């Protein structure tokens, strides 16, 4: 039994989780949860025991000075609560940490224990993967679930992914088996510019989360940061003709693939978000790379990470090719 002291009774709580590492390309997902915690002044009420789940040779503790006294911060996962008021008050339980090195089943059981004790009605897990997507276009965000009924009710995709998975996929399945509704939101980060931060992908995740849980999320300076990020990548890409050509080929493939989907649904969703904002008022990555659409690892290209020089990125598949582009669950 998990004893929670000092945590008030929550209103329609939703748990939002993100983990640094393989599931967090560009640190987009963990930064999104950090943004929620900062904007809504979350209060930490629990931390998992680092000894149980982390290999300290993989995720090393850090030493720092506090008024001349040396202290140690251990890698772990922390839970905090944010109270969100307004016409439709709804509280959030934020879970932010590092993908554990071991005992994933026990780790998920601890998270689910907190969810049960707090009366969590929905678990939303944020992730980011590397993909063949151009930085100049809106960031694709996929909403997936293992629950067929939940997929129908919330207009989500029922996951069909098979392959290597991270803690996001394991936690989602643990929730499903425990009867807790769970959704994963995945942002696709351009594989040729994968270094953190990626405020554009973080912003896309928060916008999709806002739609999913019907809450207005204060974005602060994030939209401006996203614009500045894109301008910076534009400038870097313009310096290399091969990269510029590759980005153009990604744009053409993306635009061709999405042309049939230029329906009223996406337009209506953006218009609803605009109305909600107008009327609502104010309100360390792992060493194993990051997840890609097919579950493999993919190297970055653009910012000089390759010691032998820039590597020409592979050509993107043409629309209609038989290539699995489904999100990792």
Describe the structure.
This protein has 329 residues and is α/β, with parallel strands linked by helices. The chain has 9 helices and 10 strands. The chain has helices spanning 28-39, 50-53, 104-118, 148-153, 167-177, 199-213, 222-238, 241-258, 264-280, and strands spanning 14-20, 43-47, 62-66, 69-73, 77-82, 92-98, 122-131, 141-145, 157-158, 182-190. The strands form 2 sheets. Strands 2-5-6-1-7-10-8-9 form an 8-stranded mixed β-sheet, sandwiched between helices. Helix 1 (28-39) crosses helix 6 and helix 3 (104-118) packs across helix 5 (167-177). The longest helix has 18 residues, at 241-258. It is globular and about 60 Å long. Mean pLDDT is 83; it is low at 281-287 and 303-327.
Q: What is the general shape?
A: globular
CA radius of gyration = 20 Å
Helix count, DSSP H or I runs of 4 or more residues? 9
Query: For the largest beta sheet, what order do the strands appear in spatially?
Result: 2-5-6-1-7-10-8-9
Low-confidence stretches: 281-287, 303-327
Mean pLDDT: 83
How many angstroms does the end-to-end distance come to?
29 Å
| Total E-strand runs | 10
Strand content: 15-25%
Q: State the helical fraction.
A: 25-40%
Largest sheet: 8 strands, mixed
- Helix and strand composition category: alpha/beta
Q: Please trace the helix and strand order, writing H or E for each element.
A: EHEHEEEEHEEHEHEHHHH
């Amino acid at each position: 039994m998990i004893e929670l002291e000092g945590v008030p009774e929550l209103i329609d709580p939703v748990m939002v989780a993100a983990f640094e590492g393989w599931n967090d390309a560009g640190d987009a997902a963990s930064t999104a949860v950090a943004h929620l915690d900062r904007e809504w002044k979350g209060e930490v009420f629990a931390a998992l025991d680092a000894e149980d789940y982390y290999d300290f040779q993989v995720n090393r503790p850090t030493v720092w000075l506090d008024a001349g006294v040396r202290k140690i911060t251990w890698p772990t996962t922390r839970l905090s609560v944010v109270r969100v008021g307004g016409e439709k008050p709804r509280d959030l339980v934020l879970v932010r940490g590092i993908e554990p090195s071991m005992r994933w089943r026990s780790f998920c059981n601890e998270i689910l224990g907190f969810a049960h004790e707090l009366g969590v009605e929905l678990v939303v897990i944020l992730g980011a993967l590397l993909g063949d997507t151009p930085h100049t276009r809106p960031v694709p965000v996929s909403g997936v679930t293992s629950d067929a009924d939940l997929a129908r009710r919330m207009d989500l995709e029922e996951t069909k992914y098979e392959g290597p998975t991270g803690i996001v996929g394991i936690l989602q399945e643990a929730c499903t088996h425990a009867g807790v509704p769970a959704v994963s939101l995945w942002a696709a980060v351009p594989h040729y510019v994968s270094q953190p931060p990626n405020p554009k992908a973080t912003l896309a995740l928060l916008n999709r989360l806002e739609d999913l849980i019907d809450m207005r999320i204060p974005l602060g300076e994030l939209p401006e940061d996203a614009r500045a990020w894109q301008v910076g990548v534009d400038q870097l890409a313009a310096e290399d003709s091969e990269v510029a050509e590759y980005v153009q080929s990604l744009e053409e493939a993306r635009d061709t693939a999405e042309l049939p989907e230029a329906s009223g649904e996406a337009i209506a969703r953006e218009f609803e978000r605009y109305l909600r904002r107008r009327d609502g008022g104010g309100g360390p990555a792992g060493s194993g790379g990051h997840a890609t659409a097919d579950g493999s690892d993919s190297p970055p290209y653009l910012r000089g990470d390759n010691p032998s020089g820039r590597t020409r990125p592979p050509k993107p598949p043409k629309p209609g090719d038989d290539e699995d582009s489904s999100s990792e669950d």
